[in-house]
Each structure stands twice: as C-alpha cells, then as structure tokens.
C-alpha cells in the first residue's frame, strides 16, 4: 500500500480507511491492554499515534520497537480519542525496518544543544532540529521565490577564486600541491598547483555579482562563503551561506525599499508556512519569538543616518546608559551592542542605517556629495544587529580607481571588476544577507552552529 | 520617472504613454533623418528600439552612444513600424550613464565562444550568454519548486569536509597553513591547520544528504562540488553544481518514477518559461534544440537493465556498428558513446538503465538478490549520456560494512555514516544530477565552460 506522509495522515479525516505510515519512533508506551507508538517521518513536527492491541502482535517484536527505531505501520485511520490530534491509526500490520540499540545518542529528551552538536549526524532526528531545518528550507524557498517573482536571476559566482574580493577577511587556501612534498622540497611552486597560481575560497560573491547585474539587470547569489577567522563564538562560522542581490539602475531609496520588502517577505513566509514549527520553538526556545516576527512584518523600518544614530547613542550615554564598547566620536564603527540599543530600546523596530563614514566601509561603496559619507543601507534587527549590509556602488571609474589606490590596494587585481565601469558603466547597488543570521532570527535559536546542518568552526569539520 | 524593464515595455500596448527604459546599447544606426538605438537591459533577449530625431539632440552626445554604452531613454511608447516588435520608443530625453570605448571586447558580433571565454566578465552582455544564464536561472527555480512542491527539504551539506565521500575523485585540499612556512620548516603540522586535520573540498553531498533524509524524510542538496582532475575537455569542470535528492522509504521503481517526473518537469519548465531564449538558441546554436526538448517531455523513458543494454550493444557490433571503445563482456563500464547509441540510435528516447554490475558502482548501492547486480537507476539522455546517476542505498549495516571492507576502504572514516544503519535504519535511495549537464542539454551549448558564469578548469581561475 502506498505510504501516506505523517503530515497528510494527521489532517486526513477520511476515517475508517486503511493507511500506511513509515517513520521513526519518538516514543513507545506499553500497558497490558494497549500500546501507543508515536511515529514521526520528518514531514512535520507532529507525530502520528499508532494504537496497538498487544494481543495481536508478537511480544518480542513489540518490545524491540524502542525510541529511534524505524517502522512501517498499516491500519485503520480513526478519529483520535486523545487531545491535540485529530486522527490516529489502529495498527493491523507492523514491519520493523531498523531497530535502535540503547546507546542511541538522541534517546533522552532535553539534552543540551552542546551535547547534540557532538552528534550532528543524529541531532537532525530531534524535534528542535527538525523544526530548525524545515524553517531553513522554507527561508531558502522564500528567497528564491521572491527574487524570481521580481525578475532577478540566480547567478552562481565562483567558490574558488584568485581574487580577494574586498579584503573582507582571512581566506582558506585551495591547493592540489602535495604539502609533504612542499615540506621536503623546501619551496612552493605555484606553477605546479592546479590553477597555476595561489587560489582561495571566496569570502563574497559580490564583485562577480556586479558583473552579472551590469549584464542581466538584476541578479542574486545564494552560495557558500568562507572566513578562516579563528573565532570561537556563537556568531561565527568558517563556512556559511550568503545571499547577495545586485541591481542595475537602483538608487539608495529604492535599495532600502527592496531590502525592507524582501526581508519582510521572508519573515511573513515563515509565519504563513511554518506555523507548527514556530509554535514549537516559541514554546521551547523563545517565548517572544512569534511576537517578534509579527512585529517586524507589521512595523515600517526606521531609516536614519549614521550621524543621527550616533547622536542617539551619545544622548543615551549622557543619560547614563552603559555600553560595554564606548561610544566615542564620529567615524567610529558601531558594535552589535550599539545597533541593538537603537533597534531594541530606542526605536523598538528595525532600523535601516545609512550614510556611514566612508572610511569604515568597503572601497566599492558610492560616496555622497559631502565626500565623507557613503550611500550605505544596512538593516539592523532585534537580537541580531546587522542582518543586511548594503550600499549603492561607485560607478565612476576614476573615483573608484582613486579609492583603490588611496587604500593601498593593488589595482591590477581588479581590472576585470573595473571593466564594468570602463564599458557602459551604470548606477547600481546591492546588499548581502548572511543566511544563518536570518535563520537565527526566524527560529529564535541562540547559537549559529545550531542553524546549519554541519557547522565548520576552528578544529571542527566533522561529518 | 519610474523605469520600465525592456521585457515589459515590449509587451505593453499602452501606446502614447511616456515611459523610461534603461539599458545597454546593442546597436546604433544613424541616418540624416533618424537614429535607431537598440537597447537591452538583460530582462529579455529582445531589444527595445529607441527612435531618435537627431535634430532634437546634441550631435556629439549621439555620436558617443556606441555599442556597449549605457543609457536612459525617456519618450513616448508607440506602435512599432518595423517588423518583429510591437512597440518602440520615440525619444524625448536621453541620458548617458556610461560611454563605451572602442576597445570594448564584445563589440563585434559573431566572435567565437573560445574568444569570449577570455572575457568571461563581459560575455554576460551578449545575446547567447544572456539566454544561457536566464535559462540557467530558470532551471534552478524549477528544481527548487519541484522539490518544495513534493515535500523535499533543501539541505546544505558541507563544502569543506574531512571525509572522502565515495572516493569519487581527486580532491582539492583546503588549508590555512602558510605554505612558505611549510616549505621552510620541512614538515606539515596539521595540528596547526584551521580544522586541526587535513580537509578538502567536497566531491558530493550524498553521504551527508542521507543523514538528512533519514531524519527529515526527503531532502535535496543543490550546491557546488569539486574535482581536482586534470581534464581539459568540453565536459569537465573543477567546480560545478550538483543536485542530490535523497528519499527515505523509496524503492527502485519509485525512484525511477521520481527521476523521470523530475527531469521532465525541468525541461517542460524551460519550454514554458524560456520561449524567447530557446528560440534564439534553436536558431543560432542547435536547430533541433526545441524538438529534442519537446520529445523528452513527451516520450516515456525506456527502462532497461544493464544486461539488456549490453546485449543490444553487442548485437549492434555484430551487425557492423563501430564503437571507439570496444564492447567487451558483462561487467565492463559503459562509455558515453555506448549510452548515446542506446538513446539516440536504438531507442530514440531517454533510457533509465538499471541493475549494473555492483563492482563498477559505489560501495553504498544496494545489491540485488543475485549478489552480482545493484539497484541502480541512471538516466541516459540524448547528446549528454548519463545525466542522472541514482540508486537505492544499502540499508543493512552488516552488508554495508562488508562492502566497505571488501573494497579496502577505512571503516573508521564512515562511523557517522554507518550510524544511519545502526540506529533505526530505513530503506532509502536517491540520485545526483550535474546541474551543468542539464544546462548543456536544455541550451544546446557544446562546451560546459559556456554554461557556468565563471568556469574553473586547470590553470584557469579568472575573475
């Protein structure tokens, strides 16, 4: 008989009909008169209850069906007698696909996330991680749907690169040189490396994304990026996924509209499509989760300049607010703590901060007429701080070259990038969203290692 | 005035209204009485014609508007007098965003693909590559939509890995060790490397994908994979994108149904959503393109075993057909030439080949009861050969361990993978699709370097 997914079995009211479910046992309660087996197949956070008359089945077989075992259950769909579910299954036939020995690491409920991180290959079978990764999937779908519906093209920028993008951070080297041989020979001969030169893993697809946008009009990347920073924090991964849209002919105001519309779309998608999982996380992880998501969708984002933001922070200090990192003078970089103060305490809604001092931002950002500030459009979120970093790009070739030279960068490395300004240059802009930051926000999880299936961090590349 | 995309301007019949388009000049023809500027903004392969009365504009400005320049044109939308387009724009105002010097590498029409590969950052602005990358986008969207609609979760498997997946090929090493220092010190100390051990770029996400499927029920990956093979052919890339669905509780028959339904969905999506681009490619690249795509959607795929396939090939040889690679005996691996003979000449439609000799396939594939063959489900396509490689996976722990040991692989490297069979094992299967192979098929392009924005091949990591 064709398998019915648990998510479909639970909303089916065709009582009396025979159905087959297949899945993993979440719990098995036995009594003399009746056994209850809760079966989950990953299609929903909810389990379907399989009700068993122990007289009809082999006792040894039943005893073997412990938490984590995998079974098929066929039987009659009936209206549930229990609370919180509409239907359950009166078992007529059970097949055990796989038993589960008692050393199953996800056996006990309520294990710490730290414990579960050691079993990254098994934690996927728990309620929390099921919910997190169904939501992660939904956010990816929302992102693709949003951009597709708005005429953006998904654009694959390279992972292995010979360029250093924006000097955004420490890079991993990619090589086919035999390191033992390098050590023995006493020299590094890049001519013998796969690409004939030194190559690394990308830290951002933006510069290549601009090549796409200035040809196809509007593109977005959605791919892995890498930072070889030795940061053991709940905020850092060595391998993470980024979304980087780039749009020709967009100005600063339109870019802010795009950012706000886009991120609200994603959050609304979660509220509309991940109700059961969000309710679970709201109950178990963060009691204010759904309320926070709803308020982000409802409120219009504050738009304020860096200078205005700095004034607010200085006023707060004057009124006695204590920050861990001091609020000094115009030109300082804001920390996550400062951003969160503006969002969580001052405005109580998301902020798009604009017109940062040019010196603290990347070389490709367009300067305002004042010569001091640039046309940035960062989105600051509750709990997260900066969730989106965006800007209009400098489209003037001479200005861009000057900026590169002033910063002591090597112009020759950027010839292909500068060609976009040399040949038919156009005004354009774009932004970057760290996918895992979005997932942290939408799930209420605290540690970034818990929102990616297999985290890569210093000394950790398991599975 | 708000910008109208060229794709929208061309199908707008609201004649007489003022509109603004922005884009790059594809051609500029001048005469005394009138100038025609064809403008493209990447939203469609078609250009919108801007009609100019030269008396109304500065002659120097007009002369500057050469192929590749970027402009804004505002004017009245009128019914086109020319053939092949419905509307055009009578320019009232023109702004030049960026001129285009005469050394613009994409100036001339009809350049070879080889020439254009050297200008990977500029070729995106040509008709052919615009068409290819709009189709590539559409195939990605079709893939996400198909799996989302069928209850699969998008699952990010790791890019940096300490495991060798299936021994599928040569791997790139990823390191933060300073190679110059390694050379000087005369030794490689992996304890000082970022992950504290030797790590590489993934060759496949399948094994981690199985972890997802045996928890969430059905997942798919869609991410970059890497092979450090020194193959300079039109078929090989060092960095390419793979789609790898994995499904719990699927049998061989259902897996074949999934593969056929999935790939037909993608091809149908192209026919339905990429009409203009396909018509262009059908005209310029492959006159049988659309017909081939249509036939794949219409015909049901032949399902035959390796043994039956081999018999057909041997019969062909007996009848005088000459293959470059000899057809020898049962157990030989088929080459692309053999696969294409079956598909293109014998059956004249796609083939799903099953039950290969277990020895020529990977360790994780489920053996049939005969002990000799395995439950494979490869899809063979015209022009491409194998486009999908799939199989039911071995779910029995003991059999899988024996297979690993028989092949001389190190069981300890697979402990996490084997845990899926130890704890609640379930029947499951899946397949892999090389994204660029699909794009080759759907676009009619001949060289895989021309269907990915920035190709990585031996000695080539530009941009």
UniProtKB/TrEMBL annotation, chains A, B:
Database matches in Pfam families: tRNA-synt_2 (PF00152), tRNA_anti-codon (PF01336)
Record keywords, A-Z: Aminoacyl-tRNA synthetase, ATP-binding, Cytoplasm, Ligase, Nucleotide-binding, Protein biosynthesis
Domain Aminoacyl-transfer RNA synthetases class-II family profile, residue spans: 133-453
One of the GO biological process terms: asparaginyl-tRNA aminoacylation
GO cellular component: cytoplasm
Cell location: Cytoplasm
NCBIfam families referenced in this protein's UniProt entry, alphabetically: asnS, PRK03932.1
Subunit description: Homodimer.
Record-stated family: Belongs to the class-II aminoacyl-tRNA synthetase family.
Protein name: Asparagine--tRNA ligase
Gene: asnS
């Amino acid at each position: 008989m064709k398998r019915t997914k648990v998510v479909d079995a639970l909303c089916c009211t065709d009582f009396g009909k025979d159905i087959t479910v297949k899945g993993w046992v979440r719990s098995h309660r036995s009594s003399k008169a009746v056994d209850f087996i809760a079966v989950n197949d990953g299609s929903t956070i909810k389990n379907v209850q399989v009700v068993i008359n122990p007289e009809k089945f082999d006792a040894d077989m039943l005893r073997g069906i412990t938490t984590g075992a995998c079974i098929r259950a066929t039987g009659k769909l009936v209206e549930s007698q229990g609370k919180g579910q509409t239907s359950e299954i009166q078992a007529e036939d059970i097949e055990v696909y796989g038993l589960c020995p008692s050393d199953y690491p996800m056996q006990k409920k309520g294990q710490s996330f730290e414990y579960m991180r050691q079993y990254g290959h098994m934690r996927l079978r728990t309620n929390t991680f099921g919910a997190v990764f169904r939501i992660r999937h939904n956010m990816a779908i929302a992102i693709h749907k949003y951009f597709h519906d708005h005429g953006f093209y998904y654009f694959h920028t390279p992972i292995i690169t010979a360029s250093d993008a924006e000097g955004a951070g420490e890079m991993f080297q990619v090589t086919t040189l035999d390191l033992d041989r390098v050590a023995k020979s006493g020299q590094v001969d890049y001519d013998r490396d796969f690409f004939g030169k030194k190559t690394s893993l990308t830290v951002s697809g933006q510069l290549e994304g601009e090549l796409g946008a200035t040809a196809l009009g509007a593109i977005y990347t959605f791919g892995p990026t890498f930072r070889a920073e030795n940061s053991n924090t709940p905020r850092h991964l060595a391998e993470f996924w980024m979304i980087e849209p780039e749009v020709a002919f967009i100005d600063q105001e339109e870019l802010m509209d795009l950012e706000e519309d886009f991120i609200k779309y994603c959050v609304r998608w979660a509220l509309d499509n991940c109700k059961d999982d969000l309710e679970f996380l709201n109950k178990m992880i963060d009691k204010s989760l759904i309320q926070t998501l709803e308020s982000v969708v409802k409120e219009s984002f504050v738009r304020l300049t860096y200078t205005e933001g700095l004034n607010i922070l200085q006023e707060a200090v004057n009124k006695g607010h204590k920050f861990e990192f001091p609020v000094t003078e115009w030109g300082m970089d804001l920390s996550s703590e400062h951003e969160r103060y503006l969002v969580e305490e001052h405005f109580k809604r998301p902020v798009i901060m604009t017109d940062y001092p040019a010196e603290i931002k990347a070389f490709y950002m367009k300067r305002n007429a004042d010569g001091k500030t640039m046309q940035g459009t960062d989105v600051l979120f509750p709990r997260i701080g900066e969730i989106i970093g965006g800007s209009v790009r400098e489209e003037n070739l001479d200005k861009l070259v000057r900026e590169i030279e002033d910063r002591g960068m090597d112009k020759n490395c950027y010839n292909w990038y500068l060609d976009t300004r040399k040949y038919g240059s156009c005004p354009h802009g774009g932004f970057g969203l760290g996918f895992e930051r979005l997932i942290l926000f939408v799930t209420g999880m605290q540690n970034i290692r818990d929102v990616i299936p297999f985290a890569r961090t210093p000394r950790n590349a398991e599975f």
